[in-house]
Specification:
The protein is mostly helical. Helix 7 packs across helix 12 and helix 8 packs antiparallel against helix 9. The longest helix is centred in the middle third of the chain and has 20 residues. It has five domains: 41 residues, no CATH class; 258 residues, Phosphatidylinositol 3-kinase, Chain A (Orthogonal Bundle); 47 residues, no CATH class; 56 residues, no CATH class; 28 residues, no CATH class. The radius of gyration is 31 Å and the shape is globular. Strands 1-2 form a two-stranded antiparallel ribbon. The protein has a two-stranded antiparallel ribbon with strand order 3-4. This is Rho GTPase-activating protein 19. One of its GO terms (molecular function) is GTPase activator activity. It holds the Pfam family RhoGAP. Keywords: GTPase activation.
Length: 453
């Protein structure tokens, strides 16, 4: 039973924490039962593709939507401009949607007190995996661990060692306390100093009444959307560790009946290390303390949503690589109507509506394909079949529909009433006798006759 429990935890780590993908295995759904690998689909693939191939366009798109949701004065807005996503040629290459194989890497080097890098995350990830298996411990993250054991564990992590937690040398409270120490010793908070004002503004987003007056009720939908956008501007390493940490805290809070640690309690433990600025004076901290703590609790409660790209951003990124009409913001989705988009159902679920103007692109492709078939393919049955199929796909007025051969009409009438008569008349005749069939003029029944009759 213990082995099965560990396997379940590891599977959840891979699916919910590390990959951020949808995994579909046909054999699990009663399929063919063969040993084919699972199908992995990342719904934010095109967003991350845009982030890394066109970072300037990505940043402009995200910033424009952030300012649509929250009011940022010039100085606060310029701070966000400093966060330009790393490109694949930079030292932090790869991106959030790539493989997290680096978490298995244990490169040697000091971890604590150093700027956040992949090597450090790979070491700290050992702590996160161990804590995920001990979420039932009462007072986890609140009860301090043994200082001597923590020092030993710190030295092992700094040396790049693989920690053998199965030996029983360390208690979950030791590991939990050391994880907080690692975050507290980072040169800047995990959410970065530059994002502080934006996070404070997000906590202030509230609903409006029917008269358009601001109420005291938080607008959770807009808060989640703003966080989805803002977290995309984090450096890759910060975003990676934040995702791993919040997923751990989310599942910790789900077992609060055992560990007595709610999302609010966890927020009080981690807000100083994740969101509190290092250089904020006591008066400013006291003024914003409630907002900072509530913001951290909100991150924990909605950690399974805030790392997804908004629907309109996914659609915009996909369309940018498809050379079709762009959807820049949620307002565009609401103003445009939906009918031909494969993403329409997802957009409708989020209250959005889309119209894709791709007819011109499709018709141009059909015309080009038609010219290639007619000019380069030799006359054959296959060529006629292709022309008939192109004629079906085209709309009236295009060269494809205007140049289709009468053969397509004969094929189109094969399912008509006349076609049924032909089937009755010729049903018992040999196939060779049917080759003499001819097509009647339009408006008359298309009845095939034997040429000898």
């Amino acid at each position: 039973m213990a082995a099965e429990k560990d396997t379940d935890v590891n599977n959840r780590d891979r699916r919910g924490t590390v990959c951020n993908v949808v995994i579909s295995q046909e054999s699990e759904m009663g399929g063919s039962g063969d040993s084919r690998p699972p199908i992995i689909f990342n719904p934010d693939f095109f967003v991350e593709k845009l982030r890394h191939e066109r970072p300037e366009a990505f940043t402009e798109l995200v910033l424009s939507n952030i300012t649509r949701l929250i009011d940022l004065p010039g100085a606060e807005f310029s701070q966000l401009l400093d966060e330009v996503p790393k490109t694949p040629n930079s030292t932090a290459a790869g991106g959030f949607f790539r493989s997290f194989n680096f978490l298995k890497r244990k490169d040697k080097g000091v971890v604590f007190g150093m700027p956040l890098m992949e090597e450090g995350i790979a070491q700290i990830y050992q702590l996160i995996v161990y804590l995920n298996k001990n979420l039932h411990v009462e007072g986890l993250f609140r009860v301090p661990g043994n200082s001597l054991r923590q020092q030993t564990l710190r030295e092992q992590l700094n040396s790049g060692a693989d920690i053998d937690f199965s030996s029983g040398d360390f208690h979950p409270n030791d590991v939990a306390t050391l994880l907080k120490s690692f975050l507290g010793e980072l040169p800047e908070p995990l959410l970065t100093q530059r994002h502080l004002h934006a996070h404070l503004k997000i906590t202030e987003l509230s609903l409006f009444d029917d008269q358009g007056n601001k109420t005291s009720l938080p607008d959770k939908e807009r808060q989640i959307e703003a966080l989805q956008l803002l977290l995309m501007l984090l450096p890759t390493a910060n975003r990676t560790l934040l995702k791993l940490l919040l997923d751990l805290l989310y599942h910790t809070a789900k077992q609060q009946d055992k560990n007595k640690m709610s999302a609010h309690n966890l927020a009080l433990m981690f807000a100083p290390h994740v969101i509190w600025p290092k250089n904020m004076n006591a008066s400013d901290l006291q003024e914003n303390l409630k907002k900072l703590n509530s913001g951290m609790a909100f991150l924990i409660k909605h950690s399974q949503k805030i790392f997804r790209a908004p629907a309109y951003l996914r659609e915009h990124a996909r369309l940018q690589f498809a050379n079709t009409k762009m959807i820049h913001s949620k307002d565009d989705l609401e103003l445009l109507s939906v009918d031909g988009s494969p993403f329409a159902s997802a957009c409708k679920r989020s209250g959005a509506r889309v119209r894709l103007d791709s007819d011109g692109h499709t018709e141009e492709a059909l015309r080009e394909l038609y010219r290639h078939v007619t000019d380069h393919m030799p006359n054959s049955a296959k060529k006629k079949k292709l022309i008939r199929q192109l004629g079906k796909q085209s709309s009236p007025g295009t060269p494809v529909s205007e140049n289709t051969t009468p053969t397509s009409k004969k094929h189109a009438r094969s399912r008509s009433f006349g076609g049924l008569i032909k089937k009755k008349v010729l049903g018992s005749q040999p196939s060779a006798d049917r080759r003499g069939r001819h097509v009647s003029p339009p408006g008359k029944e298309n009845i095939s006759c034997d040429p000898a009759s």
